[in-house]
Amino acid sequence: DAVFSIISTPVNLAIDWVCPDSLQMSWNAVAGATSYEVSMLSAKYMDSIATTNTNSIVLTGTNPTINNWFSVRALGSTNARGERAIAIEKMPGTFNCPIAIDAGLSGLNPVDNAQFLDCMVSNINVTISIKNEGLSSISNIPVHYILNGGTAVNEIHTGNINSGATFNYVFTAQITPAIGANTLLVWSDMSGDGNSFNDSVTSQFTYVGATVQSLPWNDDFESFGLCGTSQNCELEICGLTNNFINESNGSVDDIDWRTDRGGTPSADTGPGTGASSGQSDFNPGTIVGKYLYLEASNGCTSQTANLVSPCIDLTTAISPQLTFAYSMNGSNMGSLRVDIYSSGSWTNNIMTPLSGHQSTSWLQRTIDLSSYVGNVVNIRFRGLTGGGFRSDLALDDINVSEPVGVDELANNLNFSIYPNPSNGLYNYNYSGKSELTIEMFDVNGKVIYARTIAKDSSTKNGIINIKDYSNGIYMMVLTEGTERITKKIIKQ
Protein backbone atom coordinates (compact mmCIF):
# COMPACT_ATOMS: atom_id res chain seq x y z
CA ASP A 1 0.00 0.00 0.00
CA ALA A 2 1.19 3.53 -0.85
CA VAL A 3 -0.16 7.06 -1.08
CA PHE A 4 -0.22 8.30 -4.68
CA SER A 5 -1.97 10.95 -6.77
CA ILE A 6 -2.90 11.37 -10.43
CA ILE A 7 -2.82 14.67 -12.35
CA SER A 8 -3.12 15.47 -16.07
CA THR A 9 -0.52 16.86 -18.47
CA PRO A 10 -0.89 20.51 -19.62
CA VAL A 11 -1.97 20.97 -23.25
CA ASN A 12 -1.88 23.82 -25.80
CA LEU A 13 1.44 25.15 -24.57
CA ALA A 14 2.23 28.35 -26.50
CA ILE A 15 4.58 31.34 -26.63
CA ASP A 16 2.32 34.42 -26.45
CA TRP A 17 4.91 37.12 -27.03
CA VAL A 18 8.65 37.65 -27.09
CA CYS A 19 10.29 40.93 -26.13
CA PRO A 20 13.98 41.92 -26.09
CA ASP A 21 14.29 40.95 -22.40
CA SER A 22 11.31 38.70 -21.64
CA LEU A 23 8.65 36.37 -22.99
CA GLN A 24 5.26 35.02 -21.94
CA MET A 25 4.11 31.39 -22.08
CA SER A 26 0.61 30.05 -21.48
CA TRP A 27 -1.25 26.71 -21.48
CA ASN A 28 -4.64 25.27 -20.60
CA ALA A 29 -5.35 25.01 -16.87
CA VAL A 30 -5.20 21.49 -15.42
CA ALA A 31 -7.95 20.33 -13.06
CA GLY A 32 -6.62 19.90 -9.53
CA ALA A 33 -3.33 21.70 -10.18
CA THR A 34 -2.05 23.89 -7.35
CA SER A 35 0.90 25.21 -9.34
CA TYR A 36 3.01 24.57 -12.45
CA GLU A 37 6.72 23.91 -12.98
CA VAL A 38 8.33 25.49 -16.07
CA SER A 39 11.42 23.86 -17.65
CA MET A 40 13.92 25.00 -20.30
CA LEU A 41 16.37 22.85 -22.24
CA SER A 42 19.94 23.52 -21.15
CA ALA A 43 23.04 21.94 -22.67
CA LYS A 44 21.78 18.43 -21.98
CA TYR A 45 18.63 18.29 -19.83
CA MET A 46 15.27 19.99 -19.34
CA ASP A 47 15.95 22.02 -16.18
CA SER A 48 13.32 23.55 -13.92
CA ILE A 49 13.59 27.36 -14.10
CA ALA A 50 10.39 28.70 -12.49
CA THR A 51 7.02 27.88 -10.90
CA THR A 52 3.72 29.74 -11.12
CA ASN A 53 0.28 29.45 -9.54
CA THR A 54 -1.50 30.40 -12.81
CA ASN A 55 -1.56 28.89 -16.29
CA SER A 56 0.80 31.51 -17.71
CA ILE A 57 4.19 32.96 -16.82
CA VAL A 58 6.44 35.83 -17.83
CA LEU A 59 10.11 34.81 -18.00
CA THR A 60 12.64 37.63 -17.77
CA GLY A 61 16.26 37.79 -18.78
CA THR A 62 15.72 35.76 -21.97
CA ASN A 63 17.75 36.31 -25.14
CA PRO A 64 15.54 36.83 -28.21
CA THR A 65 18.37 36.14 -30.67
CA ILE A 66 18.62 32.40 -29.85
CA ASN A 67 16.15 29.55 -29.92
CA ASN A 68 14.97 27.81 -26.72
CA TRP A 69 12.86 24.79 -25.88
CA PHE A 70 10.27 25.09 -23.06
CA SER A 71 7.90 22.71 -21.30
CA VAL A 72 5.62 22.72 -18.26
CA ARG A 73 4.19 20.16 -15.81
CA ALA A 74 1.28 20.40 -13.38
CA LEU A 75 1.84 20.10 -9.59
CA GLY A 76 -0.95 19.08 -7.25
CA SER A 77 -1.77 18.07 -3.68
CA THR A 78 0.05 15.24 -1.87
CA ASN A 79 3.18 16.00 -3.92
CA ALA A 80 1.57 15.21 -7.27
CA ARG A 81 4.02 15.78 -10.15
CA GLY A 82 2.48 15.40 -13.58
CA GLU A 83 4.17 14.47 -16.82
CA ARG A 84 5.88 17.27 -18.76
CA ALA A 85 4.09 18.52 -21.84
CA ILE A 86 5.79 17.99 -25.20
CA ALA A 87 8.28 20.84 -25.45
CA ILE A 88 7.79 23.75 -27.85
CA GLU A 89 10.52 25.77 -29.55
CA LYS A 90 10.91 29.51 -29.36
CA MET A 91 12.57 30.63 -32.57
CA PRO A 92 14.98 33.60 -32.70
CA GLY A 93 13.35 37.02 -32.94
CA THR A 94 10.68 39.04 -31.22
CA PHE A 95 6.93 39.17 -31.87
CA ASN A 96 3.76 40.58 -30.30
CA CYS A 97 5.90 42.39 -27.75
CA PRO A 98 3.59 44.60 -25.62
CA ILE A 99 5.63 47.80 -25.89
CA ALA A 100 4.44 51.20 -27.09
CA ILE A 101 6.75 51.76 -30.09
CA ASP A 102 8.26 48.98 -32.18
CA ALA A 103 8.90 49.36 -35.91
CA GLY A 104 9.92 45.89 -37.11
CA LEU A 105 11.54 45.30 -40.51
CA SER A 106 11.22 42.15 -42.66
CA GLY A 107 10.65 41.03 -46.24
CA LEU A 108 13.65 42.76 -47.83
CA ASN A 109 13.80 42.79 -51.61
CA PRO A 110 16.21 41.95 -53.29
CA VAL A 111 15.78 38.74 -51.33
CA ASP A 112 18.65 36.75 -49.91
CA ASN A 113 20.43 34.56 -52.51
CA ALA A 114 18.66 36.24 -55.45
CA GLN A 115 20.37 36.50 -58.85
CA PHE A 116 20.06 39.26 -61.45
CA LEU A 117 21.49 39.59 -64.96
CA ASP A 118 23.04 42.95 -65.79
CA CYS A 119 21.42 42.81 -69.24
CA MET A 120 18.05 42.39 -67.51
CA VAL A 121 18.21 45.34 -65.13
CA SER A 122 20.81 48.00 -64.29
CA ASN A 123 19.05 49.61 -61.31
CA ILE A 124 17.06 47.67 -58.73
CA ASN A 125 14.32 48.86 -56.37
CA VAL A 126 14.84 48.27 -52.65
CA THR A 127 11.63 47.27 -50.84
CA ILE A 128 11.18 46.64 -47.13
CA SER A 129 8.13 45.61 -45.07
CA ILE A 130 7.60 47.79 -42.00
CA LYS A 131 5.34 46.21 -39.38
CA ASN A 132 4.08 48.13 -36.37
CA GLU A 133 4.79 45.58 -33.62
CA GLY A 134 4.01 48.13 -30.89
CA LEU A 135 0.80 49.18 -29.17
CA SER A 136 0.72 52.76 -30.52
CA SER A 137 0.34 54.06 -34.08
CA ILE A 138 3.59 55.25 -35.65
CA SER A 139 4.52 57.63 -38.48
CA ASN A 140 7.56 59.47 -39.88
CA ILE A 141 9.62 56.27 -39.71
CA PRO A 142 13.27 56.73 -40.74
CA VAL A 143 14.62 53.98 -42.99
CA HIS A 144 18.13 53.61 -44.37
CA TYR A 145 20.19 51.27 -46.53
CA ILE A 146 23.83 50.68 -47.38
CA LEU A 147 24.99 48.65 -50.38
CA ASN A 148 28.39 46.95 -50.12
CA GLY A 149 29.52 49.19 -47.27
CA GLY A 150 29.05 52.37 -49.29
CA THR A 151 27.29 55.63 -48.49
CA ALA A 152 24.05 55.37 -46.50
CA VAL A 153 20.79 56.29 -48.21
CA ASN A 154 18.39 57.95 -45.75
CA GLU A 155 14.64 58.29 -46.32
CA ILE A 156 11.48 58.66 -44.22
CA HIS A 157 8.14 56.92 -44.50
CA THR A 158 5.79 59.76 -43.56
CA GLY A 159 2.58 57.73 -43.56
CA ASN A 160 0.81 56.32 -40.50
CA ILE A 161 0.95 52.61 -39.60
CA ASN A 162 -1.57 51.36 -37.03
CA SER A 163 -0.70 48.78 -34.40
CA GLY A 164 -0.36 45.35 -36.01
CA ALA A 165 -0.43 46.74 -39.58
CA THR A 166 2.28 46.40 -42.24
CA PHE A 167 3.41 48.77 -44.99
CA ASN A 168 5.67 47.84 -47.91
CA TYR A 169 8.03 50.75 -48.40
CA VAL A 170 9.85 51.24 -51.73
CA PHE A 171 12.95 53.41 -51.47
CA THR A 172 13.01 56.31 -53.91
CA ALA A 173 16.72 55.78 -54.50
CA GLN A 174 17.46 52.61 -56.47
CA ILE A 175 20.64 50.57 -56.09
CA THR A 176 23.21 49.91 -58.82
CA PRO A 177 24.85 46.60 -57.88
CA ALA A 178 28.41 45.56 -58.57
CA ILE A 179 29.12 42.54 -60.76
CA GLY A 180 29.42 39.55 -58.45
CA ALA A 181 28.35 39.26 -54.80
CA ASN A 182 26.49 42.17 -53.18
CA THR A 183 25.48 42.81 -49.56
CA LEU A 184 22.54 45.07 -48.73
CA LEU A 185 21.79 46.28 -45.18
CA VAL A 186 18.49 48.01 -44.38
CA TRP A 187 17.65 49.41 -40.96
CA SER A 188 15.37 51.78 -39.05
CA ASP A 189 16.13 53.93 -36.00
CA MET A 190 12.66 55.04 -34.92
CA SER A 191 12.79 57.38 -31.94
CA GLY A 192 11.59 55.63 -28.76
CA ASP A 193 11.64 52.17 -30.36
CA GLY A 194 11.65 49.71 -27.45
CA ASN A 195 12.91 46.71 -29.45
CA SER A 196 16.25 46.85 -31.26
CA PHE A 197 16.27 43.18 -32.29
CA ASN A 198 14.00 43.62 -35.34
CA ASP A 199 15.32 46.93 -36.63
CA SER A 200 17.62 45.64 -39.41
CA VAL A 201 17.58 43.13 -42.28
CA THR A 202 20.46 41.98 -44.50
CA SER A 203 20.38 40.44 -47.97
CA GLN A 204 23.18 38.94 -50.03
CA PHE A 205 22.53 38.62 -53.76
CA THR A 206 24.46 38.11 -56.99
CA TYR A 207 24.63 40.41 -60.01
CA VAL A 208 25.78 38.50 -63.09
CA GLY A 209 27.50 40.02 -66.08
CA ALA A 210 25.66 38.38 -68.98
CA THR A 211 25.76 38.38 -72.77
CA VAL A 212 22.64 39.43 -74.66
CA GLN A 213 21.71 36.60 -77.02
CA SER A 214 21.01 37.37 -80.68
CA LEU A 215 18.50 35.53 -82.86
CA PRO A 216 18.33 32.70 -83.62
CA TRP A 217 19.03 31.46 -80.09
CA ASN A 218 18.46 28.05 -78.55
CA ASP A 219 19.67 25.90 -75.67
CA ASP A 220 19.12 22.16 -75.29
CA PHE A 221 21.00 21.98 -71.93
CA GLU A 222 23.65 19.59 -73.27
CA SER A 223 26.40 21.76 -71.75
CA PHE A 224 24.76 21.75 -68.29
CA GLY A 225 26.17 19.70 -65.42
CA LEU A 226 23.91 16.97 -64.05
CA CYS A 227 22.17 17.67 -60.75
CA GLY A 228 21.05 15.34 -57.98
CA THR A 229 17.77 13.45 -58.23
CA SER A 230 17.32 12.77 -54.51
CA GLN A 231 13.86 13.20 -53.04
CA ASN A 232 14.87 16.26 -51.03
CA CYS A 233 12.71 19.05 -52.48
CA GLU A 234 14.17 22.52 -51.88
CA LEU A 235 17.42 21.18 -50.43
CA GLU A 236 18.63 20.29 -53.92
CA ILE A 237 20.24 23.45 -55.33
CA CYS A 238 20.86 22.98 -59.05
CA GLY A 239 23.34 25.44 -60.53
CA LEU A 240 22.76 26.26 -64.19
CA THR A 241 25.02 27.74 -66.86
CA ASN A 242 24.64 29.87 -70.00
CA ASN A 243 23.04 32.65 -67.90
CA PHE A 244 19.98 30.58 -66.97
CA ILE A 245 18.74 31.26 -63.44
CA ASN A 246 17.06 28.89 -60.98
CA GLU A 247 15.37 31.40 -58.67
CA SER A 248 16.08 31.22 -54.94
CA ASN A 249 14.29 28.46 -53.01
CA GLY A 250 12.32 29.58 -49.99
CA SER A 251 12.32 33.26 -50.92
CA VAL A 252 11.31 33.56 -54.59
CA ASP A 253 10.06 30.04 -55.35
CA ASP A 254 10.05 26.61 -53.69
CA ILE A 255 12.27 24.18 -55.62
CA ASP A 256 14.78 24.09 -58.49
CA TRP A 257 14.63 22.75 -62.02
CA ARG A 258 17.15 19.86 -62.12
CA THR A 259 19.38 18.78 -65.00
CA ASP A 260 18.92 15.07 -65.74
CA ARG A 261 19.23 12.44 -68.48
CA GLY A 262 17.41 9.18 -69.24
CA GLY A 263 14.30 8.66 -67.13
CA THR A 264 13.50 10.31 -63.80
CA PRO A 265 13.66 8.14 -60.61
CA SER A 266 9.89 7.69 -60.26
CA ALA A 267 7.87 5.18 -62.28
CA ASP A 268 5.09 6.25 -64.67
CA THR A 269 6.14 9.89 -64.85
CA GLY A 270 8.67 12.15 -66.52
CA PRO A 271 10.47 11.70 -69.84
CA GLY A 272 11.63 8.25 -70.75
CA THR A 273 8.66 6.24 -69.48
CA GLY A 274 6.55 6.25 -72.64
CA ALA A 275 7.03 3.63 -75.35
CA SER A 276 7.79 6.29 -77.98
CA SER A 277 10.18 8.29 -75.82
CA GLY A 278 12.95 5.67 -75.68
CA GLN A 279 14.15 7.08 -72.36
CA SER A 280 15.56 10.08 -74.21
CA ASP A 281 15.49 13.84 -74.13
CA PHE A 282 13.89 15.79 -76.97
CA ASN A 283 17.08 17.13 -78.55
CA PRO A 284 19.37 15.39 -79.47
CA GLY A 285 16.91 12.59 -78.68
CA THR A 286 19.31 10.14 -77.04
CA ILE A 287 19.46 8.38 -73.69
CA VAL A 288 22.44 10.56 -72.70
CA GLY A 289 20.76 13.76 -73.85
CA LYS A 290 19.95 16.23 -71.06
CA TYR A 291 16.77 18.03 -70.03
CA LEU A 292 15.47 19.97 -67.01
CA TYR A 293 12.78 18.49 -64.79
CA LEU A 294 10.94 18.87 -61.47
CA GLU A 295 11.29 16.14 -58.82
CA ALA A 296 7.92 15.70 -57.11
CA SER A 297 8.61 12.71 -54.81
CA ASN A 298 8.70 12.57 -51.01
CA GLY A 299 5.94 15.13 -50.48
CA CYS A 300 7.42 17.72 -52.86
CA THR A 301 3.95 18.48 -54.17
CA SER A 302 2.31 21.79 -55.09
CA GLN A 303 5.80 23.33 -55.28
CA THR A 304 6.74 26.11 -57.72
CA ALA A 305 10.01 26.28 -59.67
CA ASN A 306 11.00 29.36 -61.69
CA LEU A 307 13.48 29.10 -64.56
CA VAL A 308 14.62 32.42 -66.07
CA SER A 309 16.30 32.49 -69.48
CA PRO A 310 19.25 34.63 -70.58
CA CYS A 311 18.55 38.05 -72.06
CA ILE A 312 17.35 37.73 -75.66
CA ASP A 313 17.62 40.61 -78.13
CA LEU A 314 14.38 41.31 -80.04
CA THR A 315 15.28 44.93 -80.87
CA THR A 316 15.56 44.30 -84.61
CA ALA A 317 13.29 41.28 -84.88
CA ILE A 318 10.21 41.29 -87.12
CA SER A 319 8.07 38.35 -85.98
CA PRO A 320 10.02 36.33 -83.39
CA GLN A 321 8.64 33.21 -81.81
CA LEU A 322 9.46 31.04 -78.81
CA THR A 323 9.48 27.27 -79.30
CA PHE A 324 10.16 24.73 -76.56
CA ALA A 325 9.70 21.02 -75.92
CA TYR A 326 7.92 19.77 -72.81
CA SER A 327 7.09 16.46 -71.17
CA MET A 328 4.01 16.40 -68.94
CA ASN A 329 3.64 12.69 -68.34
CA GLY A 330 2.06 11.52 -65.08
CA SER A 331 -1.31 11.00 -63.42
CA ASN A 332 -0.54 13.67 -60.78
CA MET A 333 0.88 16.19 -63.26
CA GLY A 334 0.81 19.85 -62.21
CA SER A 335 1.03 22.82 -64.56
CA LEU A 336 3.40 24.89 -66.70
CA ARG A 337 3.18 28.64 -67.29
CA VAL A 338 5.35 30.92 -69.43
CA ASP A 339 6.02 34.61 -68.64
CA ILE A 340 8.13 37.31 -70.31
CA TYR A 341 10.20 40.16 -68.86
CA SER A 342 10.15 43.24 -71.08
CA SER A 343 10.48 47.00 -70.50
CA GLY A 344 11.23 46.51 -66.80
CA SER A 345 8.31 44.32 -65.77
CA TRP A 346 6.97 40.78 -66.00
CA THR A 347 3.94 39.81 -68.08
CA ASN A 348 2.55 36.51 -66.81
CA ASN A 349 0.93 33.75 -68.84
CA ILE A 350 1.84 34.64 -72.43
CA MET A 351 0.31 31.30 -73.37
CA THR A 352 -2.64 29.39 -71.97
CA PRO A 353 -1.24 27.41 -69.00
CA LEU A 354 -0.72 23.69 -69.58
CA SER A 355 -2.16 21.49 -66.82
CA GLY A 356 -2.46 17.78 -66.12
CA HIS A 357 -1.18 14.77 -68.02
CA GLN A 358 -0.53 15.62 -71.67
CA SER A 359 1.29 12.67 -73.24
CA THR A 360 3.89 9.98 -72.60
CA SER A 361 5.96 11.57 -75.39
CA TRP A 362 7.67 14.92 -75.79
CA LEU A 363 5.49 17.71 -77.21
CA GLN A 364 6.33 21.17 -78.56
CA ARG A 365 4.70 24.55 -78.11
CA THR A 366 5.30 27.74 -80.13
CA ILE A 367 4.46 31.24 -78.83
CA ASP A 368 4.39 34.41 -80.93
CA LEU A 369 6.63 37.12 -79.42
CA SER A 370 5.84 39.86 -81.96
CA SER A 371 4.32 42.05 -79.22
CA TYR A 372 7.76 42.40 -77.62
CA VAL A 373 9.73 43.44 -80.71
CA GLY A 374 12.11 46.32 -79.97
CA ASN A 375 13.04 45.06 -76.49
CA VAL A 376 15.55 42.83 -74.77
CA VAL A 377 13.50 40.14 -73.02
CA ASN A 378 13.77 37.19 -70.64
CA ILE A 379 11.54 34.12 -70.65
CA ARG A 380 10.39 32.57 -67.37
CA PHE A 381 9.07 29.00 -67.12
CA ARG A 382 6.97 28.51 -63.98
CA GLY A 383 6.48 24.85 -63.22
CA LEU A 384 4.17 23.63 -60.46
CA THR A 385 4.23 20.06 -59.22
CA GLY A 386 0.88 18.35 -58.75
CA GLY A 387 -0.68 16.52 -55.84
CA GLY A 388 1.44 13.35 -56.03
CA PHE A 389 4.84 11.99 -57.04
CA ARG A 390 3.78 11.27 -60.65
CA SER A 391 4.40 14.90 -61.56
CA ASP A 392 7.94 15.02 -63.01
CA LEU A 393 7.43 17.86 -65.51
CA ALA A 394 10.34 18.42 -67.94
CA LEU A 395 11.64 21.01 -70.46
CA ASP A 396 14.09 20.79 -73.35
CA ASP A 397 15.27 22.57 -76.49
CA ILE A 398 14.21 26.18 -75.82
CA ASN A 399 14.43 28.25 -79.00
CA VAL A 400 13.73 31.86 -79.95
CA SER A 401 13.95 32.38 -83.70
CA GLU A 402 12.85 34.64 -86.51
CA PRO A 403 10.70 32.85 -89.09
CA VAL A 404 11.23 35.72 -91.57
CA GLY A 405 13.64 34.40 -94.16
CA VAL A 406 12.98 30.79 -93.20
CA ASP A 407 12.44 29.87 -96.83
CA GLU A 408 16.00 30.90 -97.56
CA LEU A 409 17.20 28.83 -94.59
CA ALA A 410 15.15 25.89 -95.82
CA ASN A 411 16.82 26.29 -99.19
CA ASN A 412 20.13 25.81 -97.41
CA LEU A 413 18.80 22.40 -96.41
CA ASN A 414 17.75 21.78 -100.04
CA PHE A 415 14.13 21.50 -98.93
CA SER A 416 11.05 23.04 -100.52
CA ILE A 417 7.33 22.84 -99.80
CA TYR A 418 4.53 24.24 -101.99
CA PRO A 419 1.98 25.67 -102.27
CA ASN A 420 1.89 27.56 -98.98
CA PRO A 421 -0.82 28.60 -98.15
CA SER A 422 -2.94 25.75 -99.50
CA ASN A 423 -6.18 23.89 -98.86
CA GLY A 424 -4.31 21.22 -96.91
CA LEU A 425 -2.28 19.42 -99.59
CA TYR A 426 1.43 20.30 -99.76
CA ASN A 427 4.14 18.97 -102.06
CA TYR A 428 7.64 18.72 -100.65
CA ASN A 429 11.02 17.89 -102.10
CA TYR A 430 14.38 17.24 -100.43
CA SER A 431 17.64 17.02 -102.36
CA GLY A 432 20.10 17.02 -99.45
CA LYS A 433 22.63 14.30 -98.69
CA SER A 434 21.88 13.87 -94.94
CA GLU A 435 19.03 12.34 -92.98
CA LEU A 436 16.13 14.82 -92.63
CA THR A 437 13.26 14.66 -90.13
CA ILE A 438 10.01 16.47 -90.97
CA GLU A 439 7.49 17.16 -88.20
CA MET A 440 4.31 19.23 -88.30
CA PHE A 441 2.58 20.51 -85.13
CA ASP A 442 -0.82 22.04 -84.46
CA VAL A 443 -1.25 25.08 -82.17
CA ASN A 444 -1.41 22.81 -79.11
CA GLY A 445 1.98 21.29 -79.90
CA LYS A 446 0.49 17.97 -81.05
CA VAL A 447 2.38 16.19 -83.83
CA ILE A 448 0.03 15.72 -86.79
CA TYR A 449 2.64 14.59 -89.32
CA ALA A 450 6.12 13.11 -89.03
CA ARG A 451 8.52 11.51 -91.46
CA THR A 452 12.25 10.81 -91.54
CA ILE A 453 14.00 10.75 -94.91
CA ALA A 454 17.12 8.58 -94.82
CA LYS A 455 20.25 10.04 -96.36
CA ASP A 456 20.39 7.20 -98.90
CA SER A 457 16.65 7.18 -99.60
CA SER A 458 15.63 6.95 -103.22
CA THR A 459 12.36 8.76 -102.50
CA LYS A 460 12.87 12.29 -101.21
CA ASN A 461 9.61 13.91 -102.23
CA GLY A 462 5.99 13.42 -101.33
CA ILE A 463 2.68 14.94 -100.27
CA ILE A 464 1.59 16.11 -96.82
CA ASN A 465 -2.18 15.90 -96.38
CA ILE A 466 -3.78 17.85 -93.52
CA LYS A 467 -7.14 18.47 -95.24
CA ASP A 468 -8.96 16.87 -92.27
CA TYR A 469 -7.55 19.48 -89.89
CA SER A 470 -8.96 22.95 -89.18
CA ASN A 471 -7.87 26.01 -91.12
CA GLY A 472 -5.13 27.98 -89.42
CA ILE A 473 -1.39 28.14 -88.80
CA TYR A 474 0.70 25.01 -88.27
CA MET A 475 4.41 24.73 -87.52
CA MET A 476 6.80 22.56 -89.54
CA VAL A 477 10.12 21.65 -87.93
CA LEU A 478 12.96 20.42 -90.16
CA THR A 479 15.92 18.72 -88.48
CA GLU A 480 19.10 17.87 -90.38
CA GLY A 481 21.94 16.88 -88.05
CA THR A 482 22.41 19.81 -85.66
CA GLU A 483 20.50 22.22 -87.94
CA ARG A 484 16.92 22.87 -86.87
CA ILE A 485 14.50 25.13 -88.77
CA THR A 486 10.91 26.07 -87.97
CA LYS A 487 8.53 27.12 -90.75
CA LYS A 488 4.95 28.37 -90.65
CA ILE A 489 2.48 26.37 -92.71
CA ILE A 490 -0.90 27.96 -93.48
CA LYS A 491 -4.08 26.02 -94.28
CA GLN A 492 -6.98 28.05 -95.62
Give the helix/strand layout.
Blueprint lengths: L13 E5 L3 E5 L6 E9 L4 E7 L3 E5 L7 E9 L3 E2 L6 E3 L12 E7 L5 E3 L9 E6 L8 E7 L5 E5 L8 E5 L9 E9 L11 E9 L8 E3 L25 E2 L11 E4 L28 E4 L10 E5 L3 E2 L7 E7 L7 E8 L2 E3 L6 E2 L7 E6 L7 E9 L9 E8 L4 H7 L2 E4 L6 E6 L5 E6 L5 E7 L7 E5 L6 E9 L2 E9 L1
Parallel strand pairs: 10-16
Antiparallel strand pairs: 1-2, 2-5, 3-4, 3-6, 6-7, 6-8, 9-11, 11-14, 12-13, 12-15, 15-16, 17-29, 18-21, 19-20, 20-29, 21-28, 22-28, 23-27, 23-29, 24-25, 24-26, 24-28, 30-31, 31-34, 32-33, 32-35, 35-36
Shape: elongated
Which regions have little confidence, pLDDT < 50, spanning 5+ residues?
274-278, 404-409
Cα-atom radius of gyration? 31 Å
Task: Tell me what portion of residues adopts beta-strand conformation.
Answer: 35-45%
Structural class: mainly beta
Overall description:
This protein is mainly β and 492 residues long. It has one helix spanning 406-412, and strands at residues 14-18, 22-26, 33-41, 46-52, 56-60, 68-76, 80-81, 88-90, 103-109, 115-117, 127-132, 141-147, 153-157, 166-170, 180-188, 200-208, 217-219, 245-246, 258-261, 290-293, 304-308, 312-313, 321-327, 335-342, 345-347, 354-355, 363-368, 376-384, 394-401, 415-418, 425-430, 436-441, 447-453, 461-465, 472-480, 483-491. The strands form 8 sheets. Strands 18, 21, 22, 24, 25, 26 and 28 form a 7-stranded antiparallel sheet that branches. Strands 17, 19, 20, 23, 27 and 29 form a 6-stranded antiparallel sheet that branches.
